[in-house]
Amino acid sequence: MKKGLRYLFGKTHFLFFLLIIGSADMSAQILTNGNFENGGSGVGFFVHDYTLINPVNGTSNPGFYARTTDPALMNSTYISGGDHTTGTGRMLVFDGSSLANRYFWTTGDTGGAIGGFTAGTTYTFSFWIKSVSNAVTTDEATRASIGIFIVNGNNMNPANPNFLAPLPSEGWVNIQYSFVATANNAMVRLKTNNAGPVGNDFAVDDFSITVGALPFVGSYASVNPTCPTGNDGSITVNLTGGTLPYTAYSLTGTATQTNNSGIFNGLGEGTYNVSVSDAAGHTYTQTGIVLEAPNNLVLSAPVTACPGDTTPLTVSGGTGAYTWTASPADSSITNPNSATQNVSPLVTTTYTVTSGTASAPVNLIQNSDFSLGNAAYVTEYLQVADPNPFGVQTSYNIVTNPNAWFTAFSSCGDNTSGSGNMMVFDGATNSDANVIAWSNQNPITVTPNTDYTFTYHVASVSADSPARLEVTINGVSQGTPVTAPGTPCLWNEVSYNWNSGSNTTVNFAIYDKNVADYGNDFALDDITFSEAITCLYQKSVTVTVAPGVTPAFNAVAPICAGESLAALPTTSTNAITGTWSPALDNTATTTYTFTPDAGQCASTATLTITVNDPVTPTFAAVAPICSGETLAALPVTSIEGVTGTWSPALNNTATTTYTFTAAAGQCASNATLTITVNNPVTPTFAAVAPICSGETLAALPVTSIEGVTGTWSPALNNTATTTYTFTPAAGQCASNATLTITVNQPVVPAFAAVDPICAGETLTALPTTSNEGFTGTWSPALDNNATTTYTFTPDAGQCATATTLTITVNELPEFTISEGCEGNSYTLVAVQGDASNSVYAWYNAGGTQIGSGSSVVVTAPGVYELMVTKGGCSSNDTINVLSTTCFGEIQRGISPNNDGLNDYFDLEAFDVAQLQIFNRYGMNVYSKSNYQNEWYGQSDSGNELPDGTYFYVIDFADSTSKTGWIYSNRQH
Description:
Layout: H1 4-21, E1 45-46, E2 51-52, E3 64-68, H2 71-74, E4 91-95, E5 102-107, E6 122-131, E7 145-151, E8 153-157, E9 162-164, E10 173-181, E11 187-192, E12 201-211, E13 217-223, E14 233-240, E15 249-253, E16 257-259, E17 263-267, E18 270-277, E19 283-291, E20 298-299, E21 303-305, E22 311-316, E23 322-327, E24 340-343, E25 349-355, E26 377-378, E27 382-383, E28 395-399, H3 402-405, E29 422-426, E30 436-440, E31 444-445, E32 451-460, E33 468-473, E34 476-477, E35 482-483, E36 492-499, E37 505-506, E38 508-512, E39 521-531, E40 537-545, E41 559-560, E42 578-581, E43 590-596, E44 605-609, E45 611-612, E46 625-626, E47 644-647, E48 656-662, E49 671-675, E50 677-678, E51 691-692, E52 710-713, E53 722-728, E54 737-741, E55 743-744, E56 757-758, E57 776-779, E58 788-794, E59 803-807, E60 809-810, E61 816-822, E62 825-831, E63 838-843, E64 849-851, E65 855-858, E66 862-870, E67 873-881, E68 893-894, E69 912-918, E70 924-929, E71 948-956, E72 962-968
Parallel strand pairs: 2-3, 21-40, 27-28, 41-45, 46-50, 51-55, 56-60, 68-72
Antiparallel strand pairs: 1-5, 3-4, 4-12, 5-11, 6-10, 6-12, 7-9, 7-11, 8-10, 13-14, 14-17, 15-16, 15-18, 18-19, 20-22, 22-24, 23-25, 25-40, 26-30, 28-29, 29-39, 30-38, 31-37, 32-36, 32-39, 33-34, 33-35, 33-38, 42-43, 43-44, 47-48, 48-49, 52-53, 53-54, 57-58, 58-59, 61-62, 62-65, 63-64, 63-66, ...
């Protein structure tokens, strides 16, 4: 146990820390980041006493840890392997500290209590652990010893707060504890107990806290009594999981006990049952637990013999020589020390065999149970009467309760009665672990070459870092140190067998090899050393002698030769068992002999079974019939009066031999009778040539070529191939016949498709012979102006159907051409009702293509052509453009002299709403609405205006107004 100010400070600091975490946010979820994938210490958990390596570099020292995907990345000497979850995720890997009691995992981001609990509810805490060092062996000193404690939780199950990391060969191992929350927040902490420099390296992963208890599971271990008459056997029940507390443990059977520990001592040979329940009503029951002294005698089973018969008796097991006795005395025992006896009793006799000798060895250890107090032993610990309040390392005292000596220890009773003395230790911390906890005060005298047994009882008195006790006898270690129980106050017996050899004295020493200064507290009690117990083995067997008996059997009635014979009984009416010979024979009268089984004192017996020869039944012959004619039932009584049955069933289709089987009890043999059945004639007919479906079928003949008459079915069918059955008229001894008339289904003629044409194109005449060679005619007449479906009608006699062929005639595109100004451009436009998929080609008067769109801009008068193609068909049209004048191209002069050239002001290409002409003095001399080409140099009154320059204002219907000048000159 930690001592002094370090213990006080740790305890005070811990209480203060609890006050702080008690006010934490209670909405936190239970165990986030349990698989370490979302971050390191501070994200859902906290590492207190180990130092983080980041990044990992293949080298580590005791007291360091890493959050990594492979232990070998942290330390190249570690065993490589993946995490528990996926094999590729994160885990925490620890290089075990050289200091004991180092906390390596605690709940919460800052290492305190977390919320999410409900007081009174049971929870299960679970995580996975594995050893990662090749130095970890079966020596417990090399394995990490892990301690767990829970704040705000009680009824922790298992109660043992300490466990060892698994061996490397075991891989990942799941550790689970259940507890009952006592508040709405709780804290769970894990620490390393030991400070071993070798091994002590491990990895953890997948932490969780879930609602519910562990499964209620029980097991038991038993120790047989040393001797058949001894009562030192025991049964220990171990429970895990379930809901605490458990009920009292109950033992029934050969002995009855009830306790609260599940450890039942003082048991002798017998059969036992144990049961115990948890608080939720789940029950663990184990029945039929057999305790049997080892090496007990195995003796022959009881037998029954005739007077004077020789009976072998055998024995094995036990220790040393055997001794046989008989009651009453039996002179046939000539060598009473032999394992096998051949006895010949004349009366029922009980034989008893013994082996070994009983011993009651004396305990040679003085004050073995410390009832004498501080006497008759040696220790290198310091006796301290009162170690409170901090405890004293390497101290001890003789007490009845560890808690009464040091209040930090658990409250326990001694191993013997629960109220006696025990020796309690506050563990030594010397680094050499070579401090004697207990040794005998004076050498003990022993007999050379004798087997002895040394035992002691140990219990932990604190929950942390259990002591590890090593025993030496005459300075020789007796093996790997034994770890004290992890659960406080649980007494464990440790035993060693020792042969004295040439020694005449012996000394013992018990050392605590754990040097931790926290925990490592234990108690000793009931130390014994005595000669090994020897047992007296004794068992009896009875040979029952019975008088001789003659077997008796019931007579067997005579049988007919061949009848079944039931097996003869192998037990006589007076209970004699045996066998019969020879084998049963149902063909001849035979006498059989019964030979009794050995050991029944019975003689042989005989039994004769009479076998009679059978009568052969006879019957009148039956005249032949035609196959299918009715057969009268055969007589069931023969001419001799024998009754019976016929088989097989009557068959009027084939010649058959029938067997008559006489009814039982008539001693008659089987008889046979053959009835001849003639085969009918099969009618034949001339074949009918195949027809085409729908053709007329002539009626089939009703008389076959052989002259057999009859009828046909089904009715004639000229639409499908059909097999017709001819049924002969009765009385002709003819069978049915069939005739198949093939009806061919008409073929649909096939023709090559005809490509679509344009309206008006020439159509080639359609072929009058199909791809299959069918000839025929087409209708209606070919039409090259419209899409038409034509029908092909095959010529008669070809078994072909009519078919159709559609020739698509695409229409020529229809359109008109519009012209006019679009802005300043004179544009020709194709106008169509449906312009989709149309292709355009514009040509000028010289035949040169000038455009390929639906419109084209022209700049000079003339004749223009447009070809429109759609669906592979084309049509064309022309337009005569008289003027291409638009805005910006209004003529600059006129010569109204009737020579046909510029005789008038031409605005026909424009959409003019109003034209006004002004002279050079600004007077309006001419006006005209909707003007086109009416002004040829006259005034509004029609008088000729003088030659000269005039100004105009043009108002357009679809554009802004335009002003300009124009020159008029009649002399040109």
